Predict the 3D structure of the following.
Amino acid sequence: MQLQTKKRGNYILLLTALFFIILLFYLPISLVFKSALFPQGKGFSLQNMADVISSSYNRRIIVFTVFQATVSTIFAVLLGLPGAWLLATKNFPGKRLLKAVSSVPFVLPSILVVLGFVIFFGNNGYLNKMLMGITGLEEPPLRILYSMKAIILAHGFYNFPIVIRLVSSLWEKLDPSLANAAMSMGAGRVRLFFTVTLPQILPAVLASSALIFVFCFTSFAIILVLGGGPAYTTLEVEIYRQARISLNMDSAAALSLTGILITLVFVYLNVHFQSSRNYHENIANRDYIEPNKPGKIFKLGISLYILSIALLVAAPVISVITKSFIIPIAGGAGFDLSSSAYYDIFRKTTESYGITLLEAIGNSISYAFYTVIFSILFGTLISYVLKGKRKASAILDTLFMLPLSVSSVILGLGYLKVMNYLDEPFRSSPILIILAHTVIAFPFVTRAVKPVMDKIKPELIHAALSLGETPLRVFMTVELPLIKSAIFAGAAFAFAISIGEMNATILLSSENTLTIPLMIYRLIGSYNFIAACALGTVLIIFTFFSFIIMDYFGSENGGF
Amino acid sequence: MGVSIKNIRKSFKDFNIDIDLEIGKGELVTLLGPSGCGKTTLIQLISGIIPTNSGTIHIGSKNVTTMPVWSRDIGIVFQDYALFPHMNVEDNIAYGLKARKTESSLIKIRVTEMLELVHLTGYGKRSISSLSGGEKQRTALARALAPSPLLLLLDEPLSALDAKMRTILRREIRSIQQELGITTIYVTHDQEEALSISDRIVVMNNGRVEQQGRPWEIYNHPVSGFSADFMGESNKIPCTVEEVSESDGIALASVNGDINFRLPYRNKIKTGEKYFVFFRPQDTEVLHDGINRTEANLISAQIISTEYFGRYLSFECSVNNTIIKTEISDRQVLESKIFSPGDRITFTVNPERCWLIGN
């Protein structure tokens, strides 16, 4: 009977979690589906889907989306593989640096990547200025921005760390005796790699490729700004244009459904490769570091690689900060070092944008605050609900983690549909933005908390219960203190996600609910790069502190 | 009354628990059996961690069958200690007292008392991770005992420790248990531990009680092959009863016609039936060459292997493929000639120490 009470309690928690996931995720998404399949509120019709897919304009967009995602994925994998190899098999000075540097893009908001690329790689960017200074050319030699090149470069930058993470973590666990066996039978280095090593790490390479493909497929801010025009439009950007500019919701919904169907295939592939037998077998419980000392050429290669990775990661970020302090002197050539851009944040009322930069910062902080609170509650609840469940857990896992695989633009579209059902004051209140951020952020809280919670042995709970505490008190005195660090790490992650979120926000925001990323986007659009960089620097600071907190609390459970 | 378990049943997919057990107040009862015999499950049923299908459980005078774990008033010591890693030793011990809303000044006194009891005075502020295995288990014991529970459950408490620490701690556990007079159920798969610590041993097999009794009863008179196998080295040789003489109080049993055992007639033995003849290696007497004796249960066999254990030398020998274990004490080893595999050996088996048991 006591267990029935406990079971009933768990049942209520599960139902609560299901209620919220349906309300916050499945309902908005189903409204998108409804709009795609029941256009104009009428009966079921595939006509809308057919119209959208048969339009040659849309078809070109779909083809381009797939194409850029494919090229970006290949580029990111090529960029990441040497790093994975280095981390997995070598000891070298700078290993820690490479690890640290490669985790930066994980937390960097995409609008900062965009801004950094404009400032660094742009036609008037630092790289071109440097090259012009060196070569004496009159024209900027590198024309990267507003082209396919910029998109690929930014996607590569954004995603190569995934390859490093996934592949090196499998690679370093490979059983060295297999390599020794192959070498004893006369296999040389090259032969060894292609016949023994590659087949073993292939699942990780494929899994990370599928994941990166999804990220590049659903990438938004990078395409929106760096693509720079209709020639380089992807599905996500088109969904946004249809929904917010053309105001054709049904067409946006049909594009969303198409996008979801394509990405699901790759999400499935990612899960499939990660759970493949190969992934778990052949794993020896030891770290294998090749004993031989690196030669000179090898050292040079490593140094070049680390240097270029560091440059790729650090240059855009540093450019943003630098630019915000360099103010051109009015009327003439020359620059002044000044923090005046920051005074402007506090002083100037930017009439054209409705609210001031300071108000946008205030919005971002308050949305992030509520997002953190909601994500912690919901993310922890889900960790608790999924704990210790065996049979149903595959279905429940998918049910609760599916939000990770639906793009935030489409989620934003779903919330936009929800907005149509709401009256004032909800319509213009930021509540929908906060809830959308929560849906995007809570899986990361769950990812941080669940492994720690799963590690708590049932005996510990039984011990506490047998000593006379009720389940609720046991949760408060035993479980909660043990998952506290993970909750802090998850909270910091949720904060970083919310404060940098632009994709869903751009669909939902009005003039009063602009956030830092949206303000930066507008400032870039009006070529006010100095103000954009000042605001970007503020965003960098917030992200940096989130990252520090995440790293501090997340270290014991391996972060994310 | 200590604990009364009446007809409790619990069904699992491929396994059923079906137990009836009475435990006296202040008694230490050991549940002994191989892994998977249901002893830990029984502990979980008694503590309420898992619910029963039917039957009743009384602890003291309370019927706890439907009570939740937290109101059963029990203390549990787990194999892996299950100490709260985020609390120090003191806070771990105080946990059950706080749960009972004990006044903080009284908690302080009680914790000091418990630390003294388990020989951990001065360890109160230590973190759990700084403790050795033995210290952890002492802390776990103090934590379980601090709220003065009606029943103490120890689930293989020593199996994570090394041999020396096991011996030390099992003595301490026994002496603390007797000092407090607390009713205790002790789960183990180690027969030596069970023999040395218990008032009574309950041998469990496949979810049922196979045999229960005082340690020496179980050791000397196992009722089944299972009990016999579980309690240390023994001989268990298939035989057929040839002759029963109730008036003389004698039974004769034959092993394939090769060996004849004479042993006291005990109840229910019938001529022509198949049994196992059971005796321990130390119930044999090895005879030296040249002594020609004609007493009962005289066996001549060929040594297959020898194993020296310090206190004794054990032999495995065979009579036409029937394997018999025997041994001589270390003192005899020095006095006698060297025995080695291939040698012939003659020994007698004390008839009083032979038992016929079912399978």
In short: Residues 90 and 124 of chain B are 4 Å apart (CA to CA). Chain B has a mean pLDDT of 89. The radius of gyration of chain B is 25 Å. Residues 235-357 of chain B form a domain with the OB fold (Dihydrolipoamide Acetyltransferase, E2P) fold (CATH 2.40.50.100).
